[in-house]
Amino acid sequence: MSRVEIFEVGPRDGLQNEQRFIPTGDKVALVDCLSRVGFKRLEVASFVSPRWVPQMADSAEVLRQIARAPGVRYAALTPNQKGFDAALAARADEVAIFASASEGFSRANLNCSVAESLQRFVPVMAAASAAGIPVRGYVSCVTECPYDGPTPPAAVARLAADLRDMGCYEISLGDTIGRATPDSVAAMLRVVLQEVPAAQLAGHFHDTGGMALANIEASLEFGLRVFDAAVGGLGGCPYAPGASGNVATEVVHEWLTGMGWQTGLDRDVLAQAAAMARDLCKGES
Ligand code: HMG
Ligand code: MG
């Protein structure tokens, strides 16, 4: 039976967008529930500037308080050396560096050019290698940038190859603003796959345009077998009208299993985690 892995990013990519500060205990409870679902990798923290993303300011505390399940890797975002040092001290099992295929989003998200962001990752990669910590790489805006418009597939391919060459074990291709379509995803993947094999790629689709499942389907046809998702669709709160975040894990899971893919996830525990996520969103007024 063919397997697809869902990489759960809700406690990071989802919660980082919530306006109300979610108490640390609630974050820990959500992660502890997710630890029982069967994920191999859970992104639960982000060591970025607390002035840029206040919601993630308690990342070290979250990593300290969670009950770590055997066989689960707890991941954290690290934009620079300072972030990596904090992630290491907090005992993150793996970290992720993140860059943009477009200059506009790089400036807005990291306050530097794409080339400068790669320079900042050099010491992170060296320190991670010395500490034996696997590093994942994200490429944002793989089909479209909110500032620069459509992203040339060649720019995505070049950046994905750069991150791979720096030592990232997997590159997650992000439709950051959820405007990709199966056609734009296919056009992008055709070029990226000339540089990086499907086995080293993941799809990271936000669902703003309601096309995330169609984009996952297109990616499956190109051989991708890892997809990022956020429980409850956290990140824009699908339960709040007009907003939507990462594609919801439980929706991806239901759709994949309906198509005959195996995910290794426990549907009932996943539903519990989705209910917890829904409650966290409800707390928002
Ligand atoms: P900067 O202002 O250019 O950085 O921000 P700086 O080096 O000049 O430092 C400014 C201040 O930030 C200093 O503090 C530093 O110590 C502090 P001060 O002396 O003024 O008190 N600082 C830090 N504090 C904590 N942790 C750190 C850190 N680094 C510096 N690691 C910086 C540059 C990268 C820090 C900033 O732009 C930043 O934090 N950006 C992160 C933005 C972010 O987290 N975005 C969301 C995640 S990316 C995403 O969601 C996309 C993804 O899901 C894929 C997709 O969907 O496409 C991954
Ligand atoms: Mg994202």
Automatic annotation (TrEMBL):
Residues 4-271 form the Pyruvate carboxyltransferase domain. GO terms for biological process: ketone body biosynthetic process; L-leucine catabolic process. InterPro entries: Aldolase_TIM, HMGL, PYR_CT. Keywords: Lyase, Metal-binding. One of its GO terms (molecular function) is hydroxymethylglutaryl-CoA lyase activity. CDD domains: DRE_TIM_HMGL. Belongs to the HMG-CoA lyase family. This is Hydroxymethylglutaryl-CoA lyase. It comes from Roseinatronobacter monicus. The lineage of its organism: Bacteria, Pseudomonadati, Pseudomonadota, Alphaproteobacteria, Rhodobacterales.
